[in-house]
């Protein structure tokens, strides 16, 4: 999903992967050296007016580098 240039949030990840472990995946990618960015977005609810959610993305230049290192295969 990151390699496709998508912004990922928890519902998107869960719907695509049937897993709720997005935080663990992002942690692992960062541990492996991937510069995954976090964008914090206000997402208030009635019960949590200060709620903030995270969107994750990978800068396209890193996607291009990874594809080039892998011979262009996705």
Describe, in plain words, how this protein is organized in 3D.
- This protein has one domain (10-69).
- The chain is 38% helix and 16% strand.
- The chain has three helices and two strands; from the N terminus they run H-H-E-E-H.
- The protein has helices at 10-17, 22-31, 60-69; strands at residues 37-42, 52-57.
- It has a two-stranded antiparallel ribbon.
- The longest helix is centred in the middle third of the chain and has 10 residues, at 22-31.
- The N and C termini lie close together (11 Å).
- The mean pLDDT is 91.
Throw out a few tags for this protein.
74 residues, alpha+beta, two-stranded antiparallel sheet, 2 strands, 38% helix, 16% strand
Short description:
Helices cover 38% and strands 16% of the residues.
Task: Output the radius of gyration.
Answer: 14 Å
Distance between the termini: 11 Å
Number of structural units classed as domains: 1
The counted number of beta strands is: 2
Question: Outline, from the CA principal axes?
Answer: elongated
Largest sheet: 2 strands, antiparallel
How many helical stretches?
Answer: 3
SSE pattern:
HHEEH
Portion in helices? 25-40%
What is the percentage of strand-forming residues? Answer: 15-25%
Mean residue pLDDT: 91
Q: Extract low-pLDDT stretches.
A: none
The chain-level structural class is alpha+beta
Strand order of the largest sheet: 1-2
